[in-house]
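Most newcomers find our protein records easier to grasp once they have seen one. Nothing more is needed to start thinking about how sequence determines fold. Here is such a record, shown just as it appears in the course material:
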Amino acid sequence: MILSSLKDLVRRAARAFLGRPYSQAVILGPMPAAAERPFPSEPLPRQPDCPPEQVAAGPLVLRRLQAGDAGAIAVAVRTSLEHLRPWMPWATPGAADLRSQLVRVAEADELWESGTGFIYVMIARDPGPPGPDAPGMVNDPDGEFVGTIGLHRRLADGAVEIGYWTVAARTRRGYATAAAQALTQVALALPGARRVEIHCDEANTASAGVPRKLGYRLDRVEEHEKEAPGERGRRMIWVWDPAEGPRATGSPDGRVARGGSR
């Protein structure tokens, strides 16, 4: 009697699930060969490969952005607004708020874990004598916070873009150049990376000086909608392509060859 009740229960469940009598339900045959299966029985893909969380870069230590950096960044942005505003669309008084920077740190964490973006703080181990804006500077256990730099992946074409900014009181000391030099090699070590790019508006000569010093090639200049008040609307696309061979002195790989390619 109990067996009969169980059979009736199974039949009713089959009808509800399949919309047909149990006797007409489809019976699965043997599993096809692995090559014929629509979803191959492979292990789940592992997490995206990420770069090291700390990188030595000459006078700098590049360290993965973390929540404890939000205060230093907020102070640095506040003291550097006039320096940043012409080129950085995000350089607004709101960006100098601690809560705003905490949100950005959380967003940066999501990018890092997804393998699409990697943001570092730039810490100068020996920043030298204080400048006129020293009251706005923030010390770090490893030295002094002087800016941020990031790698932004474009998986569709294998490019990795480098973006950076430095604190107003610490410009013209080669910090952005040293950081970009170190991260160029880090970027090329990422799986699937084919080239590294640095983008900046044609009017931003200081930013353009970084890829030029490192031996990047000016691939093209594209018209674009102005995003910040100092821009001309002409974006320079600087490219480091390892397939093109060595570059000038000071290049990311340290080799010496043809110089001044533009």
Strands lie at 54-57, 60-64, 117-124, 139-140, 143-154, 159-166, 195-201, 217-223, 234-240.
